[in-house]
Amino acid sequence: MKTDFCFPLTSPIMNACGVMDTTWEELVALASSRLGAVVMKTATIRPREGNPTPRYARFKYGSIQAMGLPNLGYKAYIKFSEELKKFGKPVIASVFGFNLDEYEFLVSEFQKSEVSAIEVNVSCPNAGEGIPAYNTKYLDEVLSRVTSIGDKPIGLKLPPYLTEKDVKEVSSIIKKYNVSYITLVNSYPTGLVIGEDEKPLIVPRNGFGGIGGESLKPIALANVAMFGKSMKDVYIAGVGGISSGKDVLDFFLAGADVVQLGTVLKENGLSAISEIEREFMDLLRGRSIEEIKGKALG
Ligand SMILES: Cc1cc2nc3c(=O)[nH]c(=O)nc-3n(C[C@H](O)[C@H](O)[C@H](O)COP(=O)(O)O)c2cc1C
């Protein structure tokens, strides 16, 4: 299966950043799977242990997490990208900076590495003060710093936006810069799930956490559709609540160019990939992805 993205892919299904992609062993497992590309865990300058546990939980309608960006630090991921080359599929770095200088530094370091693209995470709900992308002035500044360094495609991992007006405003900022693709969406920033013990399911952030899985899907689909309408030239990676072939189909029908699996990989492991792919191929009924892209919206 071939599809257009900002680089060639053998499958339009990837992992979502941050799930099963932190250690070398996890990355090798992903690289050996049927995924079309591997996204590595969001890297910060220094390694981080992340928040106290429990910091991830499954609930009836999805997942809640406040991981706090546990990662091995950018140097480890630069080294992994060199070694992952032998698996022959694109490897994407993800970076998070606690200020503008950190974003610029991390992107310039990965520009010198073996990765195929660099995804700038401006949407982490569990690190730093607020969500960078919700501050449009700051988003503009981040983009002006990171898009003029090097030739590798720059992706942008965005949080869910609430209205078409928000999407238009953010799109007009992104359009000023050389952004190759946007990944829609990161976890819904603040949810609360209370367990049978009458306490929040997770410990950090007083129990608040980012919501993924089933509850996120309609929100993610709407973001894909809204950005697809306002930014015709940018590739879109759709993510949020995909756990079946029908979910994948829906994201393409809403206008995504590729899709990513998060919570479902965490819950069901690698076997989810081939199952979802098989179900999706059946639902395609011989059509190409190009034929169905954006078709739900006419
Ligand atoms: C345990 C966990 C860790 C995550 N870590 C990151 C991360 O480091 N960087 C990032 O951009 N997104 C991160 N995400 C968000 C996912 O990439 C994805 O956008 C979100 O979970 C929605 O997809 P899903 O509904 O398939 O889970 C994380 C999600 C989960 C569940």
The overall pLDDT, averaged over residues, is 96
CATH architecture: Alpha-Beta Barrel
Let me know the CATH homologous superfamily.
Aldolase class I
Q: Could you describe the largest sheet, including whether it forms a barrel?
A: 8 strands, parallel
> How many structural domains?
1
Explain how this protein is built.
By secondary structure, the chain is an alpha/beta fold. It has one domain (13-50, 69-189, 212-297): Aldolase class I (TIM Barrel). It is built from 10 helices and 12 strands. The protein has helices at residues 24-31, 74-84, 100-111, 136-146, 164-174, 217-230, 245-254, 263-268, 271-284, 289-292, and strands spanning 13-15, 38-43, 56-59, 62-65, 91-95, 117-121, 154-158, 181-184, 188-192, 208-212, 235-239, 258-261. Strands 1-12-11-8-7-6-5-2 form an 8-stranded parallel sheet. β3 (56-59) and β4 form a beta hairpin. α3 (100-111) runs parallel beside α4 (136-146), α5 (164-174) packs across α6 (217-230) and α7 crosses α9 (271-284). The longest helix has 14 residues, at 217-230. Flavin mononucleotide (FMN) binds next to β2, β4 and α8.
